[in-house]
Every structure is written in structure tokens, then in C-alpha cells.
Write a structure and sequence with these properties.
This protein is an alpha/beta fold. It has a single domain, classed as Ribokinase (UDP-N-acetylmuramoyl-L-alanine:D-glutamate ligase, 3-Layer(aba) Sandwich). The strands form 2 sheets. A 9-stranded mixed β-sheet has the order 6-5-1-9-10-11-12-13-14, with helices on both faces. It has a 5-stranded mixed β-sheet with strand order 3-8-7-2-4. Helix 11 packs antiparallel against helix 12. The longest helix has 16 residues. The C terminus is likely disordered.
Length: 333
């Protein structure tokens, strides 16, 4: 794998995230289930932004897979990304951000649809509820570019959210097939319990037949295998895959072959859980592409996911880059 040009390649829905602090009753008024991702249309998107205009905490370039990629790029990893944006301010912001970070990317620009937006509604307990309008972030069919990029990558990383569109499923299917031919490792983050419930059969088949690394939180693991986190990890391990089960405030469980490692939690006051899973994936893949032991990669995942929940939005604090390279202590049992 050392001859590969990219450490990690991803194709996903590039979006702009709006982080907004809300009350519990406002989620009920909007008909949004707490802690879950929901799809909205352009009209609903504008109504919500108008309603909460004065309460927006921040706006950042986002999208689950793109959060992982931009973080890896910020830490110096060689990254590549393919997606679709609208011909608008948001699309230009995404393009310039990825260029600034040094991400090797191909962004198809469409004139007739806006760039996707994810409205992250955060309650006082730090739980985020997402309302996403994919806009023109539905991934275009860039088959030849996808095959080129995946053949040049050590790892192809994708998220379950891509299954929300037919084009997304097609592009990921192309990347998986090309990746296996090119000896590219396949990293799959299942993304969201509702997405898992809607596409469970597809996801189980991907894990069984294609994935090499599988990320899931406790609820997603239960939806997939109807087991406890430890049993779910064993189910994934039995297929000769690496299981990464994120347990929130209880840390994480890493399973590979016959071994399981418990990653201890890092105590922190939770402000906003947006991007926690994406950052865990970034930290773990940072370790893996650095040929570090799995417990160290898991600790890096915990370090980044803990940092991102200390403030609003899927961004890291200024000193986390120093911490990642200087901390070598990790705890597992």
C-alpha cells in the first residue's frame, strides 16, 4: 500500500452545516425526532433558517464523510474527495475550503440546484438533531474519476448517508468494486440508526462481502445485529473485519481478528455532539494510515471525538493538532 498516492479517498454529500441551539419543545413543533437525522426539502430548509436566523451558532463546511476527510487533511494526510455542489456561495465555500486544506478533489458543479445544507439543532443536553436538504449534493455519476481515485488510495471511506440517493448508491458501488480490484481497503461508517433501519439488508451485505473497517455506534450496532456492542463487534470480527463500536460516554470497543480492546472514555462537558462520529473515524484512520496499533488508533479517535463535542459545530479546537502528535498514552483492557 505504500505506493498509493492518497491515504484516504471519500465520496459523499458535501454540505454546509448550520448549528442552532433550540429547546426540546421546538423539535416537537417541527416534528423532528430527537437525536435522529431527517430529510427536508428546500421550502422547509428556508422556513427553519428564517425561524432561527438570530440563533445560529456557526456555519461550517460539513457532511459526514467530508468532516472526516477535511480533518485528516488538516493533520497532513493525503486525501481525495468527490462530490457535487451547486453553483452558489455555499458551493464556492466548500471548494475553497478543500483547496486550502490540500484535499485533491473533483467537485461537479450544477447550475439548477443549490448546495446541500444540514441544519443541526442542538438541545441543552448537547444532543444534536439533524435536518438535511441534500440539494445538489446528490452525488453525480463520475464513474471514471471514482475508479481513478479509488485505485490510487490506501483506504476508501464512505458513509451510510450516501444510501439516501440512488446516485449515491451507484457511485459507492462503483468505488467498492474498483477498490477491491485495486487492493484498496474499504472503510464503512454506517452513519445513523434510521438509515440502518431503512437499508439494513444492504448494509449487512456490505459488511459481509466488502468492508474491511466498520464504524458504528451502540444503537446502530444493535440495529444491524440485534446484539450488545461486544457481541456486535464479535459478529463483525467473525467476518474477518475490523469493528469500531463507538459507545459515547463509555468510550469505544475495537475488535479485530481474535482481539478486542476497550478504549476508555475521556471526561468532558458536552456542548454539541455534532460530528463526534466523523471525528472518531478521522482519528482512527489517522492512526491506521500511520501504521499504529489499533488501541492507539482508537485512542486518537476518542481524543478527536471528545474535543469536537466541547463546542458548537463539527470543528476541532486549536490545540488538538499538538495533542494528537504529542500524546502517546492510551488505555485499553
Amino acid at each position: 500500500m505504500s505506493a498509493k498516492q492518497f491515504d484516504v479517498f471519500c465520496t459523499d454529500h458535501p454540505m454546509i452545516d448550520y448549528t442552532i441551539e433550540v429547546e426540546e419543545h421546538e423539535l416537537d413543533e417541527l416534528g423532528l425526532p430527537k437525536g435522529i437525522g431527517s430529510a427536508i426539502d428546500g421550502r422547509q430548509r428556508q422556513e427553519m433558517l428564517d425561524r432561527f436566523r438570530g440563533r445560529i451558532k456557526n456555519t461550517v463546511v460539513g457532511g459526514s464523510g467530508l468532516n472526516t476527510i477535511k480533518t485528516l487533511a488538516a493533520f497532513g494526510k493525503r486525501t481525495a474527495f468527490i462530490g457535487t455542489i451547486g453553483n452558489d456561495e455555499d458551493g464556492a465555500r466548500i471548494s475553497s475550503t478543500l483547496e486550502e486544506l490540500g484535499v485533491h478533489c473533483k467537485l461537479a458543479v450544477r447550475d439548477n440546484y443549490p448546495t446541500g445544507v444540514c441544519i443541526c439543532l442542538v438541545t441543552s443536553d448537547g444532543e444534536r438533531t439533524m435536518a438535511a436538504d441534500l440539494g445538489e449534493s446528490l452525488i453525480g455519476s463520475q464513474r471514471e474519476t471514482v475508479l481513478e481515485y479509488v485505485s490510487r488510495a490506501r483506504i476508501f471511506h464512505f458513509c451510510g448517508y450516501t444510501w439516501l440517493s440512488q446516485t449515491g448508491r451507484e457511485v459507492v458501488g462503483t468505488a467498492i468494486a474498483g477498490g477491491k480490484s485495486a487492493r484498496t481497503a474499504i472503510s464503512f461508517d454506517v452513519s445513523d440508526p434510521i438509515v440502518v433501519q431503512s437499508h439494513r439488508t444492504d448494509f449487512v451485505n456490505i459488511i459481509r462481502d466488502h468492508a474491511d473497517i466498520v464504524f458504528a455506534n451502540e444503537e446502530e450496532a444493535k440495529s444491524l445485529f440485534n446484539h450488545s456492542p461486544q457481541e456486535a463487534a464479535f459478529s463483525i470480527q467473525s467476518l474477518n473485519k475490523c469493528a469500531v463500536i463507538k459507545l459515547g460516554s463509555k468510550g469505544a470497543l475495537i475488535g479485530n481478528r481474535g482481539d478486542q480492546f476497550k478504549i476508555a472514555p475521556i471526561a468532558v462537558d458536552v456542548v454539541d455532539t455534532t460530528g463526534a462520529g466523523d471525528m472518531f473515524a478521522a482519528g482512527f484512520l489517522y492512526g491506521i494510515t500511520g501504521n499504529l496499533p489499533l488501541p492507539v488508533a482508537g485512542y486518537y479517535g476518542a481524543l478527536l471525538s471528545t474535543d469536537v463535542i466541547k463546542h458548537y459545530g463539527a470543528t476541532l479546537s486549536d490545540d488538538i493538532y499538538r495533542q494528537l502528535t504529542s500524546k502517546r498514552r492510551f488505555i485499553y483492557h
